[in-house]
Specification:
The complex is a heterodimer of chains A (111) and B (116). Chain A is mostly beta strands. Chain A has no helices and eleven strands. By secondary structure, chain B is an all-beta fold. The chains are: A mainly beta (111), B mainly beta (116).
Amino acid sequence: KQEVTQIPAALSVPEGENLVLNCSFTDSAIYNLQWFRQDPGKGLTSLLLIQSSQREQTSGRLNASLDKSSGRSTLYIAASQPGDSATYLCAVEDSSYKLIFGSGTRLLVRP
Amino acid sequence: EAGVVQSPRYKIIEKKQPVAFWCNPISGHNTLYWYRQNLGQGPELLIRYENEEAVDDSQLPKDRFSAERLKGVDSTLKIQPAELGDSAVYLCASRLEMAGGSNEQFFGPGTRLTVL
């Protein structure tokens, strides 16, 4: 059974700092991995999707990497801003087209 | 382009009462998902539709939950009767599935259910 773990559960950093969020999964047989952002009381916004054949994806200040063999992904946020404060969720899609989510990392960027 | 629409956004009911949630996916998206998200957790899949067919309902508590997607467009998720443990956010997502590729799911804002 696929399990997704995100570390740390919560993170507080000063504005301007670069940071890394970690995601690990137990079964390397995935179709893709997706990073989402969730603001309080809101739905999920897709940030980056990495296909199983890819190693990384970039969008603006965000860079996500995927190492399928070791079951790990990282989300790198450069020059963090208070507006980046949110919960970041990692999810892997398995062979049955189902997304399996981690519990998320709650990020607070202090002005 | 409109995103995934869900209603209501909030619902408060007494236990043992019925409740229904509605979702309208992004136009043209053939696959629709219902997820449940408990506080402090990631979403968990309840049911997945391809067009009007429920292709994965293995995690739907069928004794009290039901869902339908008539005509393969919008969908309704129902709980009857609701229990205290059903308090959660119910999220709908849609995707255009294409042969030979996988692409992202788009999520609606969710319905926050509180059962008293």
